[in-house]
Amino acid sequence: MTETISTGLPMERENPFDPPAELRELREDAPISRMIFADGHEGWLVTGHAEVRTLMADNRLSTRSELHHPLFRLGNGDLPERPKAEPGFFLGMDAPDHTRLRKMLTGQFTVRRMNQLSAWIGTIVDEQLKAMRAKGSSADLVEEFALPVPSLVICELLGVPYEERGRFQEDTAKMLNFDNGMAEIEAAVRRIQDYMLELVERKKASPGDDMLSGLITTGEPTDTEVGNMGMLLLLAGHETTANMLGLGTFALLQHPDQLALLKAQPDLIDNAVEELMRYLTIVHMGTIRTALEDFEFEGHQIKAGDSLSLHLPTANRDPDKFENPDALDITRPSSGRHVSFGHGIHQCLGQQLARIEMRIGFTALFQEFPDLHLAVPASEVPLRSRMAIYGVHSLPVAWTA
Amino acid sequence: MRISVDQSRCCGSGMCVLTDPELFDQSEEDGTVVLLEPNPTGEHEKLAREAENLCPAGAITVTD
After folding, report:
1. Closest to A109 (Cβ–Cβ): which among B29, B31, B53?
2. Name one GO molecular function term (chain A) (predicted).
3. Distance CA A36, CA A291 (A)
4. pLDDT attached to residue A15
5. Interface probe, candidates B7, B10, B13, chain A, greatest A C-beta count within 10 A
6. CB < 8 Å to A107, chain B
7. Complex ipTM tops 0.90
8. Which CATH number fits domain B2-57: 3.40.50.720, 3.30.70.20, 3.30.200.20, 3.40.50.10780?
9. Which pLDDT score, from 0 to 100, does residue A5 have?
10. For chain A, which domains are there?
């Protein structure tokens, strides 16, 4: 079979919301194609929804970080190093290591437990909106609302004092920024890890009613594992939802018909959240898997050691799966679903928390600020194109005071 | 129709409970699937199929 070969992952977007056009064309041509990774490795680029979804759940593929070839070079030309996942960092592990660690946490993120947090999350959202209103008639939505809400929530759940966010927020941004070199990224990671280990010591001396204390009390994980699990939850818990709230608000403001529909029919919110997740796919580089053995997939010979770039944003715009895929349509039946939370055993652990934060966040924002609008031309909204998680760096908004 | 679940495969994503809380629940302890109704009827049959399809870990099997 003749294979299409691309060199490197296309990253140029034509507009803030759509995946690179080059990838959409490639998907039509070949939902599975060859791609040269940044280190010269000839791997695979997968862009079809069905193919991406199937491969994410295939245990012949590994998520172990040390096996993956890098997708791109960092800003200073460095090839990102991919060491073995540190103890506790289960995102980069396969079963059974992943299973053991994830199981320690799944009971904390059940649908029921997250629903029980609704009223409390509602209070946090209301307080942030009140603080935003106190700014007058304009503010940066990211700084006043999108970032603080999920940060306050995950900090409280983990037992990380929010007033100490200076110890991880800037370093998180450094760690996720592709324009930084490897040394800078590693130093940022190390500082967050040191902070988490210090917290573990403090929790041991004086435990609280929180997840970190709970993990320590079970006696199962080592201190290092608790620290790294805490770091993983902290990062995954605030960067992701924050960017969905920021970019999601931008998308709704740029689609006034959809926003009007949501305001007229607030019951559509759960569906709207799923559609925004699909339409925006903030994990914009997708995810990587590496084959552990040779196998044939859809007529392609995958070899052990091959890395596969599974491109979630393009998969979420596949017309074979979604009718009129490039339209934001909050009435779209959500069944059959997007792959934005992933698929397979690594599917987002905090997805039920994220859903509730978005449901309450978007609803309260547009109730409280019905005439919310952009305070700058849309073209001036700074996009997180060079960050591991896509979104907006800031979103200047205004309202009638 | 009959639903069977495999707790050892379950990764606790909660997709089944989100799809039909009358058929599925999650254990308080480790979040794994708890089957509330192995023989769904009426509208729940369709939801059972959907839960089977959405389960990220292949822990739900529906047979006619």
Report:
1. B31
2. heme binding
3. 16
4. 95
5. B13
6. 12, 26-31
7. yes
8. 3.30.70.20
9. 85
10. 5-398 (1.10.630.10)
